Amino acid sequence: MKQQPSVETRSLSASRAEMSEILMPNDTNNLGRALGGRILEWMDVCGAIAGRRYAEGQVVTASMDHVDFLAPIDVGDVVTVEAYVFDTGRTSMDIKVDVTAERPSEGKKRATITSFFTFVALDEDETPVPVPKLVCESDEERELRDSALRKREEHRAALAESNA
């Protein structure tokens, strides 16, 4: 039996997901900084949560754009991963995933990683199924979508330029 979305459209806010972790010693390298693979795992999980909320069903990771580690994440930092759907295809969802790190005693958050994932919605037979079309119901949602579309395009252009 095929999974069908309960509505034909869904808002960006319906997909929003956030998760936080404390970076523990087991998640760090010999410098006491985050292992990249651990952070990528958290990003993939948060992106999948956003995709599952949006599609109201199972999703799988199809791709992840280039990742730049912009700032270190140190042992003891609170790491927050945020994700939301900003564009859709027929069966796919593009999801922006941002990571910030915070040292609560200092009261400062810093951006550490941004990437763009693509997830595909699946039915119970693991066959791709259509996803609702994205609608932005507020100025904030339109701004998030437009910013993500612009940043992904800039990101891809910079990557293409560096590979030329």
Automatic annotation (TrEMBL):
GO biological process entries: acyl-CoA metabolic process; fatty acid catabolic process
Molecular function GO terms recorded: long-chain fatty acyl-CoA hydrolase activity
HotDog ACOT-type domain: residues covered: 13-125
Keyword annotations from UniProtKB, A to Z: Hydrolase
Keyword Cytoplasm annotated: no
CC annotations in GO: cytosol
One Pfam family here: 4HBT
UniProt-listed InterPro entries: Cytosol_ACT, HOTDOG_ACOT, HotDog_dom_sf, Thioestr_dom
Protein name: Acyl-CoA thioester hydrolase
Biological source species: Haloferax mucosum ATCC BAA-1512
